[in-house]
């Protein structure tokens, strides 16, 4: 991160513990990570390494036992109540399971309008924002009266992405957003996420156990192992010369997908960052 561009999200020495006060189980050990404006940072690691817990801590869904989380220079580590609700305008999430994350009793129209109603957006403006989001995720307007059960996994994930985007957040935590989908659908959703980032400048913290997926969409990659962040770098570099033994193992287990595309995407982001620093 250059001195001229401050990261949008900064996590410093973050500690999260589950269990009880008497018998705490530490699952994040002083984790530090930064995500710049318009950047996609991938968080990879095996199951149980603490990736989702880090995402949840940023969203305020688990208590923080130590360290600090800042968003746009503001300390949000222990934000609660009104302050936390207001943060929903800036930080949103897309979960892994497009079947469980959409309320089956709500129409798509209501699902997409709900975050706007919570934010106090007027009905007319909400209607036009919802229509715009449907266009962005390539869904027709006639889905509004229908229910989640009428859609495929990929279509549901498009709806979940539209819902995350509708308040125009600056950061989306994507928690394994494609791992419940078949390979072809994975590819189209990843393309959609890349395109949306290019068009809106939103940042992503992209959680995945799949290094191949992360390399495809992310400018930088952070590797987690047993609650520790063991390595951060660009995907190219981690693939070429992994520093940590665990990264080497992760690499051996991952098919290498599109290294040229990843390098190109990182370069584009670096150029964008330089341009915005120069303004
Ligand atoms: N609510 C909870 N209570 C107690 N322990 C938990 C809780 N949630 C997660 N853990 C434990 O915390 C550790 C980290 O879990 P976490 O879900 O963050 O890992 P992960 O890397 O996201 O794994 P996965 O890829 O399987 O989702 C694991 O050991 C898990 O068992």
TrEMBL record:
Domain ABC transporter: 9-251
UniProt keyword terms in alphabetical order: ATP-binding, Nucleotide-binding, Transport
InterPro entries with a match to the protein in the record: AAA+_ATPase, ABC_transp_ATP-bind, ABC_transporter-like_ATP-bd, ABC_transporter-like_CS, P-loop_NTPase
GO BP field: transmembrane transport
CDD domains linked: ABC_NikE_OppD_transporters (cd03257)
GO MF annotation list: ATP binding; ATP hydrolysis activity
PANTHER family: D,D-DIPEPTIDE TRANSPORT ATP-BINDING PROTEIN DDPF-RELATED, TRANSPORT ATP-BINDING PROTEIN
Family that this chain belongs to: Belongs to the ABC transporter superfamily.
Protein name: ABC transporter
Species this protein is from: Microterricola viridarii
Lineage: Bacteria, Bacillati, Actinomycetota, Actinomycetes, Micrococcales
